[in-house]
C-alpha cells in the first residue's frame, strides 16, 4: 500500500506533470472505484489544473474549483503515460480503473491489482466533503506537529497498542503498515506497547523516529518517476516485509505476527527484549 512518503513523492511528480494542463476526458472503467456521482466526472472537462495537494494518503488534483481526489488503497497505483490511447478503454479483466486524459495527449491511469477493489476516486467541489478526508488526523511532517502534539494524541489513545495508533488515520494521517513497522524498529519499541505508557525519553525517541523515517523516505524518492517509487520503498525497508532475514542493527532474525488480513514484522532483540510475540490476542508482552 502506498503510504505518505510515496504519496508525497507522487504529489511532487504530478505537480510537475499536471499544473497548467487541461483535463479533456476521464474514463471510468471500474465503476466501483468512483465513490461520487454529483458532480459527474464530466464536470472536470475543460478545466485547467492549478495544483496537486495531499491529505494523508489521498491525492487531490484541483482544477478551477473542482477536485479529483483519489486513494490508491492496498493494491492501487498510478501509471503516467506521455501519450494516452485515444480509443475508450474496454471494461474487463484488467487492472485499469480510471484513465485521465490531458490536452497535450498525456495523462495517467489508476490501476488496481488483486481481487479486492478498494481504490477510491472522488469528484467534489471541496475535499472536506469526503468523510475519510474530513476525519484525518494531523500530518506528522507538518510544522505544528511537535512533541507535545504527539504526547496529546498518545495520551488520548490510552492503552491502545502503538502499532494500531500509528496506523490509525484519524490519529495521525499518512502512516501505514510498512512505515509503522520501520518507525517502531528505529524507536526500539514493541508494536504492542500501550500508547500512554511512554516515558518522556521514549516519547522523544518515538517522535524523532516518526519524523526522521518519513522525511528520509521522501528524500530517497526525490527525482524518481512514479514507476520507480514502489521499488524504492521496498529497498529502503529494514524490517517490514523481511521476515526471516537478519536485522541490520543486531543480526537477530526478523520475526512476524500475522493477522486476518495483514502482518507486522519486528526484531525481537531490538524491540521486545528478545521475546517472540504471539498473535495480537494471545500476546502478554505489553512493555
UniProtKB/TrEMBL annotation:
Q: Which UniProt keywords apply?
A: DNA damage, DNA repair, DNA-binding, Glycosidase, Hydrolase, Lyase, Metal-binding, Multifunctional enzyme, Zinc, Zinc-finger
UniProt cross-references to CDD domains, sorted A to Z: BaFpgNei_N_1
Looking at the record, the residues that make up the Formamidopyrimidine-DNA glycosylase catalytic domain are 2-109
Keyword DNA damage found: yes
Q: Which SUPFAM superfamilies match?
A: Glucocorticoid receptor-like (DNA-binding domain) (SSF57716), N-terminal domain of MutM-like DNA repair proteins (SSF81624), S13-like H2TH domain (SSF46946)
Pfam families on file: Fapy_DNA_glyco (PF01149), H2TH (PF06831), zf-FPG_IleRS (PF06827)
Cofactor(s) demanded: Zn(2+)
What the entry lists under InterPro entries is as follows:
FPG_cat, FPG_N, H2TH_FPG, Ribosomal_uS13-like_H2TH, Znf_DNA_glyclase/AP_lyase, Znf_FPG/IleRS
Where do the FPG-type domain residues begin and end?
A: 238-272
Q: Which family does it belong to?
A: Belongs to the FPG family.
PANTHER family in UniProt: FORMAMIDOPYRIMIDINE-DNA GLYCOSYLASE
Q: Which named protein is this?
A: Fpg/Nei family DNA glycosylase
What organism is recorded for this protein?
Microlunatus aurantiacus
